Batch of 2 targets.
Target 1
Amino acid sequence: MFGRLGDLAGWRERDVAADTLSGLKEILTGLDAALGSALKGVGVQAAVDRAIVRGDTVLAPDAEVAFMPPMSGG
Amino acid sequence: MFGRLGDLAGWRERDVAADTLSGLKEILTGLDAALGSALKGVGVQAAVDRAIVRGDTVLAPDAEVAFMPPMSGG
Amino acid sequence: MIRIVDHVLDPGAELTRFCANRSVTGAVTSFVGLARGEEGMPALELQAYAGFTEGAINGFVEDASRRFDLQDVHIVHRVGAIRTGEAIVLVFTAAAHRRAAMEACDYLMDHLKSRAPLWKKGADGAWIEPTARDHNDLARWNRDGEA
Amino acid sequence: MIRIVDHVLDPGAELTRFCANRSVTGAVTSFVGLARGEEGMPALELQAYAGFTEGAINGFVEDASRRFDLQDVHIVHRVGAIRTGEAIVLVFTAAAHRRAAMEACDYLMDHLKSRAPLWKKGADGAWIEPTARDHNDLARWNRDGEA
């Protein structure tokens, strides 16, 4: 979780078991509805193993998923 | 004398008694005809006491005169 | 070439290293972005995504290298909590002639400021998004029709 | 603010000093002009006219200050015999925002390169005049009709 998503979640990293990106979002929404809603917000991107993913994708067991709000720039 | 004028003259600075800028040029031409001709060349400027002078001017006894070929820039 | 670091930067030491042992370089341009704010106070906090952020910045460097006749580029970006007056970002470019060095530095900063995967929190605790000024600066590079 | 010196320059140390103790500066741009040539060999020789040259450069700084929203400028120009890889000129500009700092640095270099009262001799012993490239660079600043 980066930027405001990390502040909203109250954590930056955690281990979650999920088979797909959409499944992961569902699990996170179940844990925290406000976070789940923010993950679907405008401009929020997901990266799987450091590559941007649009739409859904299958997750390998040790996949690293990042949720990124609009980038601030340097 | 700056740039190529100094190389041509063989000196950078010297004391010369002259009442006017044109008189100074005549004296220098008498000492060194090639230098005198170069001082009249295209783009050569004269400064008296660090101010550019176009045309002739009267020289104070302790005036500093500089002859400057086209500037190279930095 | 591209480093993301979480400690105080030393722009002078980096410039000394970047300028050393050059014989075909005529121009080195550098940009130092400093944190503005109240003296001695925390000014902002930056987050990067290790690996991902460097990859995106490397893409800007590759674009700049295609576009300008560059010999070398060095970028250091600070992350973490940054105090007023401390350097946030250093961009150094080297070229035979000054126009390429200057334009590449300008290009890289415009892209870093608006497109780098970095998340910034101001001294007031609010997360910041790129400004209209940043988007205008970036748009300058697309006026010749390049994507 | 403007210095003409006949010893080896230290761009990093100058940048460190220029960046120190700033709280309202967001952008520092610097340009370092290096002598190109054969490694370890004399590359060029520069003459200035003490007092006169600084005055002309100061005029460029005043023009730049009117034109751009600058906070500070520092220029150091080397004269005398310069070897390959050594710095010839340093230009530092400070501003709240990067566009002013960058454009002012660019403007100052264009004027220094073509209009500064300096006389330059190449490694071959021939005196050098400004290039067509320098005049083109300079002409960019007059396109808006300013003299």
Target 2
Amino acid sequence: MIKILFFARLQEEMGTESIEVEKAGYTVRDVKEWLADNHQLSTISQTMVAINEDYANDDDMVNESDTIAFIPPVSGG
Amino acid sequence: MIKILFFARLQEEMGTESIEVEKAGYTVRDVKEWLADNHQLSTISQTMVAINEDYANDDDMVNESDTIAFIPPVSGG
Amino acid sequence: MSSDLFTITDQPISVEEMTQKVIRPECGAVTTFMGTVRELTNGKRTISLEYHAYESMAVKMLEQIGQEIKEEWPDTLAVIAYRKGHLNISDIAVVICISSLHRKPAYEANQYAIERIKEIVPIWKKEQWADGTEWIGDQLETTAYPEGKPPKGGSL
Amino acid sequence: MSSDLFTITDQPISVEEMTQKVIRPECGAVTTFMGTVRELTNGKRTISLEYHAYESMAVKMLEQIGQEIKEEWPDTLAVIAYRKGHLNISDIAVVICISSLHRKPAYEANQYAIERIKEIVPIWKKEQWADGTEWIGDQLETTAYPEGKPPKGGSL
């Protein structure tokens, strides 16, 4: 199982803060495609991604028990 | 009469904060020369000068009742 | 790096306390940046806003910024506090304090910190506008959702 | 310009109060600079120092700096307080607060203020060194008088 976190506009689109799915072994790119196909997230390609609270690239692998977070453009400051 | 103010090292050299002298009509340059001749102030040429709290040039005139201040390099901040 | 130096809080931030954390005998300069809630943005009036954070990661990113500052300006000490939750106009959202021996690094490191916060710290603001609409978006304020919801669907 | 905004004081300066003077609904950014008394300067240990000011002119020059800032960065509001008299290590000598709509002018105007203070505000520090000597001089710290008195006489 992996945990997927959604924030800001993505959280509003999903209607939830997080989901848990059997996608261990997927790359970040794979998870994005799966989300796009299954949840019609319009802006998923524009978001940054973090695995276990560190920014990750599309090629990075999501392992069993990892938390992957989709991070829309931030607006701090 | 004009009032002459001394600060920082000049004040220590003069041993006083201010003097009053009959030098109305002098230019700043004249006052500097008079001070150099009569009080052996070593650093008078390196100081800035203010007349009535505004910075002045060597050619500016000191008028009756004016206050002229000799301002060594400042060390604020 | 102490978590006391880089914090996310739902309480008002005391500039005085933040300042005291960085003042050291060897220092001659302290710079502080405060981000406050602005009433008008591009002519629209904000009533209030809410900051939401991916909190654990936000703290980690603040610590990372502190580390980057330490490497670039070794004589500095940095603290950063970010307020989450509901804020009103003029409330302080973020405070960055930097102390250093001389003033130049204190200014440079401070400006670096706020730029990096806007790049990597996962915090978002949700604005409540006076005209009844709301907005969630990036700091460039280029994307507005006047219906209060971003559009659904669309292409990747 | 209100004299409340540009002051010389013999009391400790409250950063919190200074900040409150410049925060305005239209602003999103406040920068603060604090100059603190540094223990070591070029390897010499300071015990304490005294700031002396040509007070009436110093206030006038602070107001002038405020005016210059207003002309260069019209959307800013500036306050400056300078502490005179006896100060110990880490005491705050000067506080500059600038608020503005966005952060860039707040940083720029703040840095401008401290540079100008070091140029035109008639304030001098007299340092008491740990080795028993003292020093009075300009901010470049190029002239030292180890006997506690500048040399007398000499040429123009």
